[in-house]
Amino acid sequence: MAALRFFFYLLMKPATLGMTFLGACGIFAPCINPDKWWIPALSGLFMPGIILVNFYLLVFWGIHKKWWIILPFITIISNHQFFSGMFQSPWKQDIPYVPKDEITIASYNVEGFYWIARNIKYNIKKLVEDNHIDILCIQEHCEESHLDSITIQQKFGLPNRCVFFNRQTAWANFGISIYSHYPIIRYGEINFNSEKNNSMWADILIGKDTIRVFNNHLQTTDVSMNGKKYEEYRSVKDWKGQARTLVNIVEQLKANFVIRASQAIQVRNLIDTTHYPVIVCGDFNDTPVSFAYNHIAGNNLTDGFRDRGKGYGHSFNGIKGLLRIDFISYDKSFTGLVYDSPHLPWSDHNPIIMKVKLKTTSR
Hints:
By secondary structure, this protein is an alpha+beta fold. Helices cover 39% and strands 25% of the residues.
């Protein structure tokens, strides 16, 4: 037993060095394009796990009173951007406002409305009405091809919409959509040449003001197939099969990091040409510690969660609820009022609901 404990003790040293390296890489994830170096992007995606392991190492070396404690300590405090992106004070003071001119916008990856097949009762219209949603951005929209405009309006409770269906079949259309209580005066598609992911924008007239809303569904991580293969190999104790699958998963993640970065650059270029007040919504499939998130945010967009969120800000219910990959951001034309992300059983994502106020309104 003593020999086993000593062996475990020795393993903690390379583990500490490895976690320090990954943590250091994560610091640079927001600013390094994965096309140039992809390890920081991998660290950014798995930063919740890296931080948890470093907390364990901090306690371990603290108990043993060794200088190695310095490495996990520095790693943790150096990744302050992760903490600010995932945690906000639950005691943050609310902004007082008069419920009159605020705009309520929501972003929701609905997982293709797959809960229809699961026979789970849902009511998007009720969600809209209960939260007084004015603008609704939907990702992974799946819609039966035969639906008419009246039926669609009854389902969503908002009179105006625009869609970008990048995959169409005989029975259904797939893509993203924007619904609005206010008139949509024009919209445009941002084509990623993908059947799964795309973005779009809509110019929405609010009183005498026009705002531009971007709805994004960036490159999907899409490791579920390899994940299933890994579980199959593990069930029969095929170690070589597991190793090959893990390599495939890493390669797939690497490719998707690069694709998301390219998509983020494409979206940001359009934001930079926009002269209207801007709100950016969507499922980025990446964390606040990522190049895609930070490149789209640039120097002029405020993250709604960082601004008005409280507590732990996860939006994706998979992976033990550790990740925040859905966002609503806005430029300096808006004041953030309220941020909410209610847990609903309808999708693997939670909706993001945000109340904002347009500062220079002529309404």
